[in-house]
């Protein structure tokens, strides 16, 4: 029994049990020898692996069967002798193991990495040096190291002169953030760039420097990175190299100086974990009604004037730049003309990178959605959070991915649902930081150009069963969720993808238990499974205040393994919880 003290009384609850849920137990009994026996023999296990787990007959199935039996034997959950086999506890414990994870733990990079870089979504950071908010936090090389270890492939540094104008600092300019020395950042990138992935790191520089300081930066970059630095043979590339071609390389991409106009925070209504994921239209309409949008409108004219002034300054600056600095620019930034028709015009002889702010991009997808898809088939497009996101909150990255945008910049310190989507996307393809865009986004036929807002036919249906969860009792103290009783958990499961596929469902609340057994079935029709992410959250129901957070994860649907699988949950920062897992079943029809 488990007891909780309430004033001078003791409340008693049944102790947590390791038994599988009713439906899971039914699956075991269906395959147990004799159709209801106490063990699952080797032949029955092979049949389960074929029929439920989707394993093809052959060497791989045989290897998996041997692994399961070896696992059970090691755990002393294998009955030996005649009529022996896998016990129900051994079956359940193997299902919960990391070897049975929803994403194959043995899968490495499997996509074709020999296509131009523009053919991939790229794990992109924003203001990569900041430790917290955009207005008053510190700057450090530590967040850069952390991002690289997570597989982030695009690092952004804002370069400003120091007070004496004789050295370079990395700092979020014209704010109260503290600076960090540029050399510390460069050394951190050099030392950690390829720890998580061998594929190229793109270094975007927000350059606010004089010609003399630009020359210093060129020297620092060349001396620090040495042979790791990619130098293009031509200033105008007709096509980007591939990630395979650029393995182990650091690529410099520059953009013109831009002031970040800081205002008060207006994201307070999003709550601790961020607002719910919505479709394009709803997100755009909601944004228009917020104070944040009004603030952005207020500064719109100032930003245009500011960019024009900076363009003139940049033109004068570039006249004094030596050729060494110019040669560092492997991926040039196309200067905006503030005419979207011109900005998104495709040059057949030259590729470049374009950057759009969140607000400008939201307007562009309404009026120039098809142009964005065509532009990103050859060129790189980066969208970055609006300047009024002082708390380092993020926006829905699917608004970019639906249109082929490769570099959807995320504040890695801005934890919440929108960053969880980014983390989910880049769990794909072995976590290497590059995920090949679906073929539908690369079709250049004008009659077949993808339209993410159109009504699309259903390609497949994902059937999900949420069986049960466990692990909270090991990772949290007894009174973490409720001081008077065990937790009341419920799960939220859904899809984030194109507008037609996006939805969220919820299980019933299981009262007073550390091991909730929901046995809840869901079905999601998918029109574009190649862009669909499975969202999973667990919360603890509270009638008197905000529900407590119990864990989350986000997984690429196209990499889910069929069958009953273990799904490890993460905390709000996206870090795996030590023990908390769900058992879920995935079937595609």
Give a short synopsis of this structure.
The protein is α+β, with helices and mostly antiparallel strands and 589 residues long. It has three domains: 1-100; 117-256 and 275-280 and 320-437, Phosphatidylinositol (PI) phosphodiesterase (TIM Barrel), CATH 3.20.20.190; 456-588, Sandwich (Immunoglobulin-like).
Secondary structure layout plus pairing:
Blueprint: E1 2-6, E2 9-13, H1 22-31, E3 39-40, H2 42-51, H3 59-74, E4 78-79, E5 85-87, H4 88-95, E6 120-122, H5 142-149, E7 154-161, E8 168-170, E9 180-181, H6 182-192, E10 201-207, H7 211-225, E11 250-255, H8 280-289, H9 291-319, H10 323-328, E12 329-331, H11 340-343, E13 353-357, H12 358-367, H13 369-376, E14 380-384, H14 398-401, E15 407-408, H15 417-425, E16 434-436, E17 460-470, H16 472-475, E18 489-496, E19 503-506, E20 517-526, E21 533-540, E22 548-556, E23 563-570, E24 576-588
Parallel strand pairs: 7-10, 10-11, 11-12, 13-14, 14-15
Antiparallel strand pairs: 1-2, 3-5, 4-5, 6-16, 7-8, 8-9, 17-20, 17-24, 18-19, 18-21, 21-22, 23-24
Helix pairs in contact: 2-3, 5-6, 6-7
Please explain how this structure is put together.
The chain is an alpha+beta fold. It has 3 domains: 1-100; 117-256 and 275-280 and 320-437, TIM Barrel (Alpha-Beta Barrel); 456-588, Immunoglobulin-like (Sandwich), CATH 2.60.40. It is built from 16 helices and 24 strands. It has helices spanning 22-31, 42-51, 59-74, 88-95, 142-149, 182-192, 211-225, 280-289, 291-319, 323-328, 340-343, 358-367, 369-376, 398-401, 417-425, 472-475, and strands at 2-6, 9-13, 39-40, 78-79, 85-87, 120-122, 154-161, 168-170, 180-181, 201-207, 250-255, 329-331, 353-357, 380-384, 407-408, 434-436, 460-470, 489-496, 503-506, 517-526, 533-540, 548-556, 563-570, 576-588. A hairpin with a 5-residue loop joins strand 23 and strand 24 (576-588). Helix 2 packs across helix 3, helix 5 packs parallel to helix 6 (182-192) and helix 6 (182-192) runs parallel beside helix 7 (211-225). The two termini are 43 Å apart. Mean pLDDT is 88; it is low at 256-270 and 280-313. It is found in: Cell membrane.
